[in-house]
Design a protein that fits this description.
The chain is an all-alpha fold. Helices cover 69% and strands 0% of the residues. It has two domains: 65 residues; 217 residues, Urease accessory protein UreF (Orthogonal Bundle), CATH 1.10.4190. It is globular and about 50 Å long.
Length: 298
Amino acid sequence: MPSPLMIAMITATITMAMIIITTMAGTVMRITAMLMTIIIMSMTSTAATTIITVIPMLMTTSERTSFLGAMTELEAAALYRLMTWLSPAFPVGGFSYSSGIEWAVEAGDISDAASLRGWLSTMLTDGSGFCDAVFLVHAHRAVELDDMKNLREVAELAAAFVPSRERQLETTAQGRAFIEIARSAWSRAGLDDAVAECEAIVYPVAVGLVGAVHAIPSQPLLHAFLHALTSNWISAGSRLIPLGQTDSQRVLAALEPMVAATAARASSASLDEVGSSTFRADLASLRHETQYTRLFRS
């Protein structure tokens, strides 16, 4: 027979379980099912643990989601803003830039899905993708810590860290557009003060700054940024080669591990580690300035 202490524990557990089930559903069948389960379990010393395990099994799908932990209001707001800000529909003009891909296609460096994947993989891991990711992380961190001196330094370095006039135009124009739209449609206290600290704001710094002001964690912000960057490169390549929609998605799927690896590396990188070894891509952005026939601005 159970000891008096065990009986008291089981009684308290039964009461608590009945309150939870009654509150969530209020049906006789659910209470009856729970009581039957409790009676069986009352002869063991693991009654309390088992009851807690059984409760979600008796819930509806919506109740189970709520009990086990649904998305919070802040998480939902952050997801909504990320999907908006880094969508191709967000009017920063990303569709008009190719980051030198247009020249690479004309020169024959990129001619199909495989060569586009190889080119973009290198740009992500060893070129502007990695550099921009580091600048985003450090801008986000500076705003989070209210370190305006560091924010100014990050913004200045990022603005200087481009290989050509067209790439400068690309990143600064998108950065300005991102800030202006965020101010107009997503205004938030502290945004204007942070922007005022920066003499020039390039695109990754703008995204990091606005994300931090809106209390969006750096990791999902960084992954969304790199996904948007990669998608825009693929979009340019698909129009220039050209590629079909399925092949474009295959390239995006193949680059998923590179995006994740770049985000992980950039998250812990210092500004001293920023550097590029993609000389051919830098040369492409330089030569695009004098390319005779052009669809893109970079």
